[in-house]
């Protein structure tokens, strides 16, 4: 979600009591529990083993070459983000450091040879640690479990010890499951983050009302992530359902979604193809029917306590709400001390915002922002290099849209238009940052703000 919609990480999450009072949350939970329990009942009968055997036959050709498949995807992922440039690991972890991209290419090359796979694993962890220079630790927790899992897989797969190699797929399964369960909590903590995205692409809800779809989607993501850790048939059906969800998301969100989720999708394929039947962790709990609601309930308590507790630990129990923070700075700024994406409103005042805030004529505020835009555009497009002229002209054009969005956030009252303004603010600033990075790499002086 953070790749496509505005967000503020250090805003106070909604009280968990709000989710517990939401009937749609309980509706989703009951439906998923019914699915899990029905699957476990089938799994206890001959039909369950027949279903698993059919999955074994279907996935056997892939499973026989599964390590090669994974290495190709891991290397391809790092080549892809090298080609995109300007990111550490995902689109919302942007970096102006060009050498980071070359490090990603080295990671991809290291995956080719077994002896260099541990070096690539160290590089993956290194990228995550480098991102700590620019991003808060709480923000990066979204990517910790998956990054550690992929790095651990590379180390274990390169090992000469059979007992270590035998655990390489288990670490991937746990990493993806934890990543999905953790990220799903955003739908309960910050449902407002999803509103612009749902309004921009209403077909995502399949005709379900927005306020019903978001909590039910959160339940689905959390419980299917949990299902990856359960018994073989539950695990494989959960993986199949997740794979369908991720594949169908590629069409509306495009290549960024495909690249960003490539590792998760590949690991989900591995989880589905894995013919293993053994339950090494808590076998009695996972084998009992009552273990499904007990295990799911324990997982929810653990993750909710971790998410809300760590957020309070990082930002304080008195952290301000989304509305309070949006009054001070643009979206995508996760920290007052280390803002990224659109600039803080109080750190970079824009034309017209003061007039709007004090109740002066809005038309005058908008006119002031447009006047500055046109003058800077005309100066920029006079550059003799056509590529540079385009960029120097587009930056003030985008800045004009940013200025108007900031005025709207100060003076507007319509919830739909406020969400649209936040979306414009996020997207336009992301493109401004991209164009400014392009100018810096070519030694072209940036236009004055």
From TrEMBL:
Biased composition (Basic and acidic residues): 330-340
Keyword Disulfide bond: no
Entry keyword annotation includes rRNA-binding: no
Keyword entries, A-Z: Membrane, Transmembrane, Transmembrane helix
InterPro entries (UniProt xref): DUF305_CopM-like, Ferritin-like
Domain of life: Bacteria
Protein name according to UniProt: DUF305 domain-containing protein
């Amino acid at each position: 979600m953070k790749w496509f919609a505005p967000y503020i990480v250090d805003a106070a999450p909604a009280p968990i009591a709000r989710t517990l009072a939401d009937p749609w949350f309980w509706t989703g939970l009951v439906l998923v529990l019914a699915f899990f329990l029905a699957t476990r009942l089938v799994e206890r009968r001959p039909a369950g083993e027949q279903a698993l055997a059919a999955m074994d036959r279907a996935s056997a050709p892939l499973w026989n070459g599964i390590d090669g498949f994974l290495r190709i995807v891991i290397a391809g992922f790092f080549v892809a983000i090298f080609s995109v440039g300007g990111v550490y690991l995902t689109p919302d972890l942007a970096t102006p450091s060009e050498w980071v991209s070359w490090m990603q290419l080295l990671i991809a090359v290291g995956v080719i040879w077994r002896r260099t796979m541990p070096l690539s694993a160290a590089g993956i962890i290194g990228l995550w640690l480098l991102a700590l220079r620019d991003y808060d630790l709480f923000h990066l927790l979204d990517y910790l479990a998956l990054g550690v899992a992929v790095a651990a897989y590379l180390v274990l797969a390169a090992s000469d010890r059979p007992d270590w190699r035998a655990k390489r797929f288990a670490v991937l399964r746990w990493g993806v499951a934890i990543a999905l369960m953790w990220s799903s909590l955003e739908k309960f903590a910050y449902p407002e983050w999803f509103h612009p995205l749902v309004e921009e692409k209403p077909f995502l809800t399949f005709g379900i009302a927005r306020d019903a779809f978001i909590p039910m989607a959160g339940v689905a993501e959390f419980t299917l992530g949990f299902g990856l850790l359960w018994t073989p048939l539950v695990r494989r059906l959960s993986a199949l359902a997740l794979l369908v969800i991720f594949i169908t998301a590629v069409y509306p969100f495009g290549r960024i979604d495909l690249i960003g989720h490539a590792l998760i999708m590949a690991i989900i394929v591995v989880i589905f193809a894995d013919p293993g039947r053994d339950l090494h962790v808590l076998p009695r709990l996972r084998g009992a029917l009552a273990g499904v609601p007990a295990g799911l309930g324990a997982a929810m308590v653990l993750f909710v306590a971790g998410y809300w507790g760590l957020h309070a630990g990082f930002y304080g129990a008195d952290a301000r709400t989304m509305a309070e923070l949006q009054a001070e700075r643009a979206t995508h700024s996760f920290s007052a001390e280390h803002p990224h994406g659109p600039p803080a409103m109080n750190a970079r005042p824009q034309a017209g915002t003061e007039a709007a805030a004090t109740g002066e004529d809005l038309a005058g505020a908008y006119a002031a922002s447009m006047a500055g835009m046109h003058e800077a555009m005309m100066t920029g497009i006079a550059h003799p290099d056509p590529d540079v002229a385009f960029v120097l002209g587009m930056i003030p054009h985008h800045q004009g849209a940013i200025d108007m969005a900031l005025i709207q956030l100060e003076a507007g009252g319509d919830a739909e238009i406020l969400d649209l303004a936040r979306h414009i603010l996020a997207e336009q600033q992301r493109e401004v940052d991209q164009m400014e990075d392009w100018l810096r790499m070519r030694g072209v002086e940036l236009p004055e703000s």
